Structure formats: structure tokens, C-alpha cells
Amino acid sequence: AAVFEQWDKAARVYLAIAGVLAIAILVAIALGAVREKRLIGAKSDLERLNLWFDTALATMSQGLTMYDRSDRLLLVNNRYCEMYGLTADQVRLGDTIHNVFAQRSAGRSPQQIDEYLGASLRELYAGRPVDKLVERRDGKFYAVSLRPVKSGGCG
Given pLDDT bands bounded at 50, 70 and 90, which one contains residue 154? Predict the structure, then answer.
């Protein structure tokens, strides 16, 4: 009888441990399901936001570029390429601002490009916006607006 009492006590302890583990597993599964549902919702929201952003970039009448703190291209819209007669092969994400300006300023010397960019970049690096009216060789005028970005770079 003492052996059975000991066995019964051990069985109850094991059952209690198994019960606690089962509850812990169920709680973990429930938390995972809630997290998964939130992630799916966030993904859907992000996809919708990206669609709106892409639509805005594709339909805006202004050309737009954005550069990171290393002056590398993060974003360019089709209108920018149209305005400067550039193809997607000429302007690629990750290109330096100097390379982008060299592509759009065909026929100008590297020194001319450096002079043009130098003054604007100094202002941007100092945290000041730059606004200018630029006449192109084809006689078109473009209002250029450059803004420093808090995390570095410009848009």
C-alpha cells in the first residue's frame, strides 16, 4: 500500500506538471496566433501604403529624388527621368548624387558639375534648404527645391 501511495503521489505531481506545461503551450500558441494576426494586418496596411506611395510618385507632375547621408540615390520617380531625358539604366538606386547630375548634365565637365553641386551641398550639409530657378540648355526653366533630411541626405 505504501508503494501505491508513493506512486499515486508521483503520478499526481507528474500530472500537475503536465497540466501546467499544457497550459503554457496553449498560452504560447494563443499569443503566437494573436501576433501572427497583427503581423498580417500590419503587412496589409504596409502594402496598401506602398501602393498609395507608388501611385503618388508615378502621377505627380514634379520630378523627385531623395539621397541618403552618403549622397546615394534612395528614390527617383519617372517624372524626374522624363524631365532630364534619362532612362532607368542611367539613373539607378545607389548612384551617387554626382553620377546622377553627370548623367543629366551630359556635355558638362566634371568641374562644372562639382561647382554646381558644391554650393548646394554645402547649404544642405549646413541644414539649410536650397531653392533655385535653373535654365536648361533647351531653354526650359525648372524650379529646384532641395531640402535637408534630419537623418542625413536630402530630398
Answer: confident
